[in-house]
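# step 3/5: fold
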Amino acid sequence: MTNIIAIQQRTASTKEKSLILWFDEVGINDIPLVGGKNASLGEMMQQLSPKGINIPNGFATTTYAYRYFMETAGLQKKLRDIFADLDVEDIKNLQQRGKKARALIMNTPFPAELEQAITISYETLCYLYAKDTDVAVRSSATAEDLPDASFAGQQETYLNIHGIKNVIKAAHKCFASIFTDRAISYRTVRGFDHFDVALSVGIQKMVRSDLATSGVMFSIDTETGFKNAALVTAAYGLGENVVQGAVNPDEYLVFKPTLREGFRTILNKRLGSKAVKMVYDGGNSTKNVPVPERKKQQFALTDDEILQLAQWAVVIEDHYSQVRGSYTPMDIEWAKDGNDDSLYIVQARPETVQSQKSSNILHTYHLQEKGKVLVTGRAVGQAINQGNVRVILDTDKIDEFQAGEVLVTNKTDPDWEPIMKKASAIVTNQGGRTCHAAIIAREMGIPAIVGCENATELLRNSSEVTVSCAEGEVGVVYEGLLQFEDVQTVLDDIPETRTRILMNVGNPEEVFKLSAIPSDGVGLARLEFVIANHIGVHPLALLNFDEVADEIEKAKIAELTVGYERKADFFIDRLAYGMGSIAAAFYPKPVIVRMSDFKSNEYANLLGGKQFEPDEENPMIGWRGASRYYHPKYREAFGLECVALKRVRDEMGLANVIPMIPFCRTPQEGKKVLAEMGKYGLERGKNGLQVYVMCELPSNVILVEQFAQVFDGFSIGSNDLTQLVLGLDRDSALVADVFDERHDAVRRMMQIAITIAHDCGRKIGICGQAPSDYPEFAKLLVELGIDSISLNPDSVLKTRFEVAKLEDRS
């Protein structure tokens, strides 16, 4: 590296007896010498810098230096005496022992040889960068960043340190931090001997993210363990705020398989509040300052930066998986330097929660009753738990916490861990899915809701609550102890079937979890759910925003679309994210996406909708499905769906999406719809595009040969087909007793459709409710030779086993 370093290396008799090692001198096998964090930095410096990953330079004091310090000062015996009556379950006992241990170390000077080694190396770093260069001084323990125990945040980190006296002081404080209360408790609970663990200190050039942005990313979905997604979080300023949960960061989700192929597969972008940022405060300290409102409303990263970070996450994961000989998802800290506008990786460690879970047991939690909603926030984990609320705002009060209570606080850091392991659930005002509270909750296997903003104000001490993280991305605290169930499904010995068993899905927030259920893809993805729950605005109100007459609704639309110069892009983005998430979850299996099938009264309920919708006597058989798509009054709105679909298939690379046209009354209507799609570059056969049609009208069955010339496949919609074959309104309670998908008339229509579709060389499946509700209906479909059955998620496994038995008998 430089002559100074070369001299230092020559004067050290061996690597094992060196007081200092530079990052490029160590690798992943050197954890015993420099701890997990520094070994990982060295590994990346050596192996991944040549692949374009930026790592700030630095050096590490060795574990030999730590043990030399302990031995020459005779500290081990004194520390053992302090810990002789340690009881980590007694918070006051733990705090007293920890305070004494740290004071002992801080009052013991470093050996002169160690101070000299740090001084020479820091001067070298200053030679490489600048006089009194600012550095991050980070602890790196030998029992840290391991695949089965993270020990994340157990010891201290100090930022914006410059000048040799301050560097040595920070390193000394890192040594003392091996005996923080949280580290003592964590090691004791994990069964690590305090004196088998040694500490290294990493001294690394600071990335000036105080002038830009920083964050955390995981190469796996943190909530579901879905391996094909990378989660990136970002906020302004130094990264400690994101790690500690002091801010609610932006979140970005990227799909790795198509990213590897060069596609721009950002599956979702969620704007965080990013209320404060950590910056330099002169000297050797930092401070938090408010973020201007304009910056809060902007994403902290550009799409190019999101994709760059996700690509690095893939490279890092691939490398560590190869080194360890098994799949190793990674937990990575990154930072952007405001001076050179470059991105850097500052830490990387194995992810320690999802990677350790059993892959053959699926836990599915269900609330069996609803209660009053008290607080909502970001859901962490997919569990449900309950208990009495305990609001604690300061660590000085943690001894008040009782086992089994729901911990409610502003945010957590490692000092809270002695009580976090006793909590039934955790609720915080601040933080995102990669904050400290989220990481520890996952590790403990308990639900957490973070970023609630005002939980400490709304939840009262001793009140009984149920904490649910089993309803998608939004976590909910309900009043009272509600009934719930934990269904455990063993995923061993799942039979293969000739009949494809598909799944009906709607909520993109649940699809990564649902993809763990063995299925052959998605037979029905409902865009109405995405439009109603993730967009909420009528597409024509976005296309004609200036003409929206209702001022209250116009204001709400403006608020939802902040940052969008063209309001319609909000619709396209959200729809593409929803559609893309569903396609990614089941990739490369087929995902049949039904284009929007709202009825006019349902469209009218969207923001701005009443102005653009007719008042129909019977919307159920009125202006819906295909007849909308090519109509002059709606075709521009359908165009937004087409743009979103093309983005998902062509830009994201998710060509497993098969669009399906609902309520198409005639083959001529089908041709008109295909012509509209063609205007947006969606042509049958191009890039493998297939277009299916719902078989839900008597005309679809009677003219199945003609529809087969227009479309590539069929999906029977048993609800509408039953309604129109039997001539009843399925929304009417007065004729509900007549509605039966198993009626002979409906069965014969299905038989005709299946037989002729096959004669025409077209696939045909079913995506209605009946197979989920009636096992005998599924039996009938198998006997008729249907190609696929699409079911509600809770019926997929049961029906697969039933179908396998039926096929064995046939």
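# step 4/5: annotate
The chain has four domains: 3-205, 210-356, 361-489, 493-809.
# step 5/5: archive (pending)
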